[in-house]
Amino acid sequence: MKTKHYAVIGHPIGHTMSPFIHKRLFELAGIDAEYTKFDIAPERLGHEYAETLRKLDGYNITIPHKQSIIPLLDDLDDKARMYGSVNTVLNADGKAKGFTTDPDGFIKAIEAAGITLDGRIMILGCGGAARTIAYEIALRGKPFEFAVRRESCGRAGLLCLDITRKIPDAKVSFGLIDQIIGNVDVLINATPVGMYPNTDDQPIHNCAIGRCAAVFDAIYNPLETALVKRAKANGSKAVGGMSMLVWQAVESHKIWDGSSYEQEDIDKLCLDASEELKNRS
Prior knowledge:
Rossmann fold; 2 domains; six-stranded parallel sheet; about 20% strand; globular
């Protein structure tokens, strides 16, 4: 059987956990495949797409290419089209089709953490990750708000309009990230603030974190961001993004080769991936 070839693209991407996770998933499924990483600067994406990415059987996309990859693809899955974000591409029959598995990974991760999407829900940021999470929350009929920097207000406003246009019953608003007032039941960090190597950074002030009952940080490196640590110190339920990363990878494999996995295998992979990340730091 011919070896299949997959990769993850992003910039920067030196410390990505994707090869570790996907190689394990291919092993569990008994599939002969190689998985590597490509650091592609934004201005190089079009060239590398034509020269490198088209030759792969499939690939994953991370920051900053989840939206900029879309014009280069031949087709989009319905969910990826609605969300305007792609993190998985299948190359088959000469066509490149984009999908988003981030929403499934997010839902499975918060369920595993015992976090319920109820009450006041706030999403930090309005980029690709925030967009996919927001649509998933809106589809569940839950009201929520974005908290963004002043320079991102225009973008946040357009995103709110896009969500309400596609989901007319959606209840969504936005405000400034440095002016969060009142209690928050579920805080979701979808910004890169706190990501390695800037691990001391927090997207919001300590006083605002203290008013959050539950925190989900989509960042997985480090395992516990400064935000997660502070929330836990306050007695709040808080979890990082490693389980989301693993679960969205599982969904990518369903797209690529139809693989399915046992729950205990995925639970162990989450633990092993966390240990691998600790060993790297």
